[in-house]
Write a structure and sequence with these properties.
By secondary structure, the protein is mainly alpha-helical. The chain is built from 6 helices and 4 strands; from the N terminus they run E-E-H-H-H-E-E-H-H-H. It has one domain. The radius of gyration is 18 Å and the shape is globular. It comes from Aeromonas caviae (Aeromonas punctata).
C-alpha cells in the first residue's frame, strides 16, 4: 500500500534577511516562510529571488508616498504615525503583507516548470487562481498604506 504523504525538506532555520532602502523594514526569509507556509521545496535562492522582485515592485509602487513621508521628517516606515496592533505598526504589517503576498504569487506562477508531472499540470489552474488572489492581497496592502480604496474602476 502506498501513502499519499510526500515528505518535504525543512527550510534552513537561518536563511537571512533582505534589506532595501533604510526607510523600509527588513524582510526575514524565515518569517516569510512561516507566515506564507512555504516549505523547503522552495530553495532559499529561489525564495530570495522572488522576495527581491517583490520588494522592488512594492517599493516602486510606494516610492512617491515614501518620499512624502520622508519629507515630513520620518526616517523609517515604523516611525510614520499609524495604529499599532500587537506592538507593530499597521503600516509595517501591510508592507510585509504586500511583499510576502507578491513573493508567494511569483513562486506559485513559476513553480510549474518543464519537469512538471501530469498531476502538476492538472493542478496549474487552481494555482493560478491562488497567484491572482495573492497579487490582489498585495495590491490591497499597498492601497491600505496609500490610504486609497481597494476598488479600481476603468472607463471603457
Amino acid at each position: 500500500m502506498t501513502s499519499g504523504f510526500i515528505p518535504t525538506n525543512p527550510a534552513s532555520k537561518d536563511e537571512g534577511e533582505i534589506s532595501s532602502a533604510p526607510f523600509w523594514p527588513v524582510i526575514k526569509l524565515a518569517d516569510l516562510r512561516a507566515i506564507m507556509r512555504t516549505d523547503g521545496t522552495i530553495t532559499t535562492e529561489r525564495l530570495r529571488h522572488a522576495v527581491i522582485d517583490a520588494i522592488a515592485a512594492v517599493n516602486s509602487d510606494l516610492s512617491g508616498w515614501a518620499i512624502n513621508r520622508q519629507g515630513d521628517g520620518y526616517t523609517a516606515l515604523a516611525d510614520v504615525p499609524s495604529e499599532s496592533i500587537a506592538t507593530e505598526s499597521v503600516l509595517v504589517h501591510w508592507y510585509r503583507r504586500a511583499v510576502y503576498s507578491m513573493a508567494r504569487a511569483n513562486l506559485y506562477e513559476r513553480y510549474l516548470d518543464s519537469t512538471a508531472t501530469a498531476d502538476a499540470v492538472k493542478d496549474a489552474e487552481p494555482r493560478n487562481l491562488t497567484a491572482d488572489d495573492l497579487y490582489r492581497d498585495a495590491r490591497f496592502a499597498i492601497r491600505d498604506i496609500l490610504g486609497t480604496t481597494h476598488t479600481t474602476v476603468e472607463l471603457i
